[in-house]
Write a structure and sequence with these properties.
eleven-stranded mixed β-sheet; alpha+beta; about 200 residues; 2 domains; about 40% strand; Tumour Suppressor Smad4
């Protein structure tokens, strides 16, 4: 069940014996996607790095994962159809032109590399935070200067939505990355969130 506003989240608990240690969002996505394609449950994930780990306050200490200091979280999993091809992501989806003139970003984590892009994004709230915009060069420079500090929103040319499901037509095929890895080009995106789909440990 998605977390309620103001409710405590996470509980003490180490990585189970069948857990998989991952060092990036991309590694976590590959484990989740392989399990989904095989029709089996996604194993618990011990996070040592990546934007989801950072959002959860993970220190990146492998020894901690199997210690009494470890903390478990139930987090959401993003799902997307890219022109009919099904994929999953744990932290974020980005579809954009080369210089970010046109972009769609779906955030399950708060961070995209050095940028604090998902200002209100929470990986356990049952929704994705989706940002869609077409920006002039001047606006892109202004946003870039502010995005590290989560001061880039609101912006008149960036549409914000918090949603459990969304279909978008980008107008033309754009390169798409999932958790920092290229996933090909797509013109249509069908986004959905699977609440509480992953058990992660930091």
């Amino acid at each position: 069940m998605p977390i309620a506003k103001g409710a405590p989240w996470g509980e003490a608990g180490s990585l189970p014996d069948d857990g998989v240690v991952v060092r990036s969002d991309a590694e976590a996505r590959r484990v989740a996607e392989e399990a989904r394609r095989d029709g089996r449950p996604v194993p618990p994930l011990g996070l040592l790095g990546g934007d989801l780990c950072r959002t959860l306050g993970g220190p990146g200490d492998e020894g901690r994962l199997r210690s009494p200091d470890a903390v478990r979280f139930r987090v959401d999993l993003g799902e997307v159809l890219l022109d009919g091809r099904l994929h999953w992501f744990v932290a974020h989806l980005v579809a954009r032109t080369r210089w970010w003139g046109q972009a769609v970003v779906a955030m399950n984590a708060q961070f995209l590399g050095p940028w604090h892009l998902g200002v209100r994004a929470h990986p356990g709230d049952g929704v994705l935070d989706v940002y869609q915009g077409r920006l002039s060069l001047a606006d892109r420079l202004k946003v870039r200067a502010r995005v590290r500090h989560a001061a880039h929103l609101p912006h008149p040319q960036i549409k914000e939505r918090r949603t459990a499901a969304l279909q978008l037509d980008l107008g033309r095929p754009l390169p798409v990355s999932l958790d920092g890895e290229a996933a090909g080009k797509a013109r249509t995106l069908s986004l959905r969130v699977e609440p509480d789909a992953l058990l992660v440990v930091v």
